[in-house]
Specification:
Layout lengths: L29 E11 L16 H8 L4 E12 L1
Antiparallel strand pairs: 1-2
Length: about 80
């Protein structure tokens, strides 16, 4: 389903597939996660025009420097196993 839409995806957190991988930590106990959401003025031109394993966190963050960030917010949640 991820390929059905007007968006492109980068590598998952493991860097081995074009997909979303939910946050997860090894071990027992509470784990806090923060997800950042950005509203951009446009799609950064430096990003590929299709889904790509080459887009990781650093490439994405560098691409954000090339466009106006209209707004940013975060979602925080606590996973208690």
């Amino acid at each position: 389903m991820a390929n059905l839409g007007d968006w492109y995806m980068g590598a998952n957190k493991d860097g081995n597939a074009i997909s979303y991988t939910s946050p997860c930590s090894r071990g027992e106990g509470a784990h806090q996660y923060t997800i950042a959401l950005y509203a951009l003025s446009e799609t950064p031109a430096s990003l590929p025009k299709s889904s790509s394993l080459e887009v990781d966190y650093n490439i994405f963050m560098d691409a954000l420097d090339t466009v106006e960030i209209i707004d940013r917010t975060t979602l925080e949640f606590l996973d208690t196993k």
